[in-house]
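Record 1 of the preview.
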Amino acid sequence: MLTLDRQDFRIVTICSLIMDNVSVVRIFTLSGINETMNYRGTIFSLTLLYYCLILFFNISLIIIIILDENLHEPMYVLLCSFCINGLYGTTGFYPKFLFDLLSSSQEISYEGCLLQAFIMYSFACCDLSILAVMAYDRYLAICRPLHYHSFMSKRRLSQLVCFSWLTPLCIFSISIILTSGLKLCGSKIQKLFCVNWIIVKLACPEADTIPNNIVSYATIIIYVSHGFFIIWTYMHLIRTCVTSKDDRVKFMQTCVPHLVSLVTFLFVIVFDLMYMRFGSTDLPQSLQNFIAIEFLLIPPLMNPLIYGFKLTKIRNRILCLLHVLRK
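->
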């Protein structure tokens, strides 16, 4: 009989484990940052300043809405939820990105990568869900003003806010759980942050990614239906506003900020998704990075600014606070 000493047995055991489970990947490398390392001091300073501005404007708007009882109306509650989601999404990216700029190696743990992918996807889809609920609120306020308070009660508002948050969180919990069960044959992510679709692409050839694809297509159908619902509400809004001067004024005051946020969000998200699936890899890495983080750059800062300056009650509240501070 052949006998193995203890060292040979350990070698055979390790080889067996490697053969049985190719995907013992515990660390991912984020290689998207490599080309910007020569300017990391400047990028770090600008990013930190920008992130502080995002925190300041979103938190300020949240505090104003919470403390002012006159703003405890459905539209402003939804705006508060919108700002909270902006903080949620940017917190999933900026602190890690700032840390990577100061680090010699840009790595993230397997669990941390899945968590970041979950935050990025749920943040984007939660934004669209909130925009859909806000469109419904404006539809009721302008097209059904007599029924607005009965339809948009506190209970209904709570249900809609829960829907806008729980739907993406549940969907992407399933997606991330499916991804965590895949065997991976690679650990290099050519981006600044983790994306579920990229992790799935790192799966070994024999891995079953069909459930992931089914969930992805189901998610696309759900959120495309959100888009059609928003289009339907705006068709009714525009048709109603054409015949009434008062409704036109209300539309310009309350719907324009929502419309700007919606168009901006759809542009940056669709552009990023189309590039991620079909875009050329020949573009400079810095341009690819900018395309990838547009949805973390523009909406989180632009939304509180637009709503803060456009909505009369919030603008007046901000002016009152500035007047008090000057004294």
